[in-house]
Amino acid sequence: MLGVLTGFGIIGFVILIGYVVERIGLLPRESGVALNRVAFFVSTPALLFTVLARSHPSTVFSASLLVTVTAVAVCATLFVLASRVWFRRGVADTVVGAGASSYVNANNIGLPVATYVLGNPQLVAPLILLQMLVMAPIILSILDVATSGRVSLASILTQPLRNPIILASLAGVLLAVFGVVLPDAVMAPFELIGGSAVPLVLLAFGMSLVGQRPLQPGEARAPIIVASLLKLAVMPVVAYLVGRFVIPLTPEQLFGVVALAALPTAQNIFNYSVRYQRGVVLARDTVLLTTLGSVVVMVIVAALLAP
Questions:
Q1: CB atoms within 10 A of CB 59
Q2: What number of CA atoms fall less than 13 Å from residue 227's CA on the CB side?
Q3: Is 27 exposed, middle or buried (0-12, 13-18, 19+ CB in 10 A)?
Q4: How high is the pLDDT of residue 207?
Q5: Interatomic CA distance for residues 5 and 194, integer angstroms
Q6: Do residues 272 and 287 touch, judged by C-beta distance below 8 A?
Q7: Total structural domains within the chain
Q8: What pTM, to 2 d.p., does this model score?
Q9: Distance between CA 269 and CA 142 in Å, rounded?
């Protein structure tokens, strides 16, 4: 338990530094965006490539992934039902809310949690692949149809191929599956660059928190609360119940899958909402609320489930 709390302490301290840097104006405006872009296009792909290239395929294609898929499906479905029966939001807003309820921040927060709390960055790779290869194309295709009345099949099919994180992850998985071991001299530059991924994303995330004010009056307040509760409470509980009683996992696997289910909503959902100008407030506030609340939830998960 002490090791878990130490891991959260490391993550929280680096996020706090990022917040202070932005708050006092130490760096030029938009520096957080620049850090995020470097992490997204350079550091994180390098980290995932090195981690997955040296992993066992069973780490990616495991029972834990089935548990995660179930938890995602349950939370997304519950939001859709609430939206149709209670909020009566449109299709585009509903799909944004469903994504906010189930699409976790596997990059900015998931990688640090897997590295410093779970002790194995490989654990987050299946989640990243699930979201980028399956969930993102589904969300984007529905938003395309709902906002324009048409869908670009080529855009949807090629979207994962334009994502450097996916490409690097797939390259690493292929090396692991076929047992290809690259020389240390080849892997060393990727390891050096990948080592900057976690601090960069945590600093950028802390910088992004400056000036945020959630739950302003308006019709989005109820959907925001429901999406946040589904993400913070329901998703980890569903993951625990399925991983404990339906698809039995080892204690280590159960802790990992529940901790990852407790991650906050990914900023990708906010990006998608801004791109299509649907559910922007819903996505923005859910990201912020779940980010603040996820720390408490993950500490509780660690206290109850950490081996």
A1: 18
A2: 37
A3: middle
A4: 84
A5: 24
A6: no
A7: 1
A8: 0.77
A9: 13
CATH number of the domain within which 273 lies: 1.20.1530.20
CB contact at 8 A, 173 and 57:
yes
In three-state secondary structure terms, 104 is strand
Q: Which of 155, 103, 144 is nearest to 286 (CA)?
A: 103
Which class for 9: exposed (0-12), middle (13-18), buried (19 or more C-beta within 10 A)?
A: exposed
Q: Is 258 helix (H, G, I), strand (E, B) or coil?
A: helix
Please state, in angstroms and rounded to a whole number, the distance separating the CA atoms of residues 289 and 277.
20
Each residue's pLDDT, cut to its tens digit, for the chain (307 residues) gives 555 566 667 777 888 899 999 999 999 888 888 887 888 788 888 988 888 788 777 666 778 899 999 999 999 999 999 998 988 788 889 999 999 999 998 877 887 888 877 887 778 878 887 887 788 778 877 887 787 766 666 666 666 677 787 788 888 888 988 888 999 999 999 999 998 887 887 888 788 778 767 667 666 788 999 999 999 999 999 999 999 999 999 999 999 999 999 998 987 787 778 777 888 888 888 988 898 888 889 889 988 998 7
Residue whose structure tokens are 């004010």: 213
78 inside domain: yes
Sequence-ordered list of residues with C-beta below 8 angstroms from that of 283, at least 6 positions apart, any chain: 96, 99, 100, 265, 269, 270, 272, 273, 274
Length of the chain counted residue by residue: 307
Domain span holding position 162: 2-209+219-305
Output the CA torsion 164→114→257→298 (10° steps): -120
Q: Residue 214 falls within a domain, yes or no?
A: no
Answer whether 69's CB lies under 8 Å from 61's CB: no
